[in-house]
Amino acid sequence: MEATSNSLLLSFFKTLVDHHVTVELKNDISIRGTLKSVDQFLNIKLDDIEVMEEIKYPHLSSVKNVFIRGSVVRYVHLPATAVDTALLEDATRREAAAQASKK
Q1: What predicted TM-score, i.e. pTM, was given to this entire model?
Q2: The 20-25 sheet, strands edge to edge
Q3: pLDDT tens profile 62-92
Q4: If you count DSSP H runs as helices and E runs as strands, how many of each does the chain have, helices first?
Q5: Residue ranges of E strands in 1-103
Q6: 74 contacts 26 by C-beta, under 8 angstroms
Q7: Which of 1, 78, 94, 98 has the most CB atoms lying inside 10 A of its own CB?
Q8: For residue 86, with 0-12 CB atoms within 10 Å meaning exposed, 13-18 middle and 19 or more buried, which class applies?
């Protein structure tokens, strides 16, 4: 069950490669950039980043690319236009049906 959920989430994130996303970290830093890659641990690589509160975090102003460990991510904010909700709902229904048939 867990592996299926993770693969669905990973597949979803892979469809967002080259889209602009905002990643909110557990330490309250928000970083916006272009999603370049995501792996099975939901580690995220962003290019062309900007820190949302640059005045509060001036040491990050010269950074252009980041690799973010999945365990420090609180939220990933996605552009609504990048999400195919019908496809996502269908995949979720199929996963739920598959899990229900296993019980």
Answers
A1: 0.76
A2: 66-68, 44-51, 30-38, 20-25, 73-77
A3: 889 999 999 999 999 988 887 777 877 887 8
A4: 2, 5
A5: 20-25, 30-38, 44-51, 66-68, 73-77
A6: yes
A7: 78
A8: exposed
